[in-house]
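Q: Could you predict the 3D structure of Sec-independent protein translocase protein TatB?
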Amino acid sequence: MFDVGFSEMLMVGLVGLLVLGPERLPKLAREAALWLGKARSLLHDAKAEIKRELDLEELKELRALNESMQLPRIDPLALLQESASQTESAETIGRPAPASSGASHG
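A: Sure. Here are the predicted structure tokens for Sec-independent protein translocase protein TatB:
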């Protein structure tokens, strides 16, 4: 976020020590750290909430797309049964009719 190195932090600390004095500087530094922590927490929570909302919106779009496609539901058992019945029909059609056993020889 901010590119602050050690030398910059040292300079801020020295100026703060000169301006505020040694009695008020530690208290002010603790308060600044507290506020900075609260700001970071607030920023983190806001980012998480935005991410949740975007993910929810994307999920809604995907569901709408899925519903609009209206893909047929496939039943594997029904497919197997249909395939087996078609195989039986093809075998029955290819066979000659069985001879009748009641024919008289004469």
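Q: Anything worth pointing out?
A: Helices lie at 6-69, 76-94.
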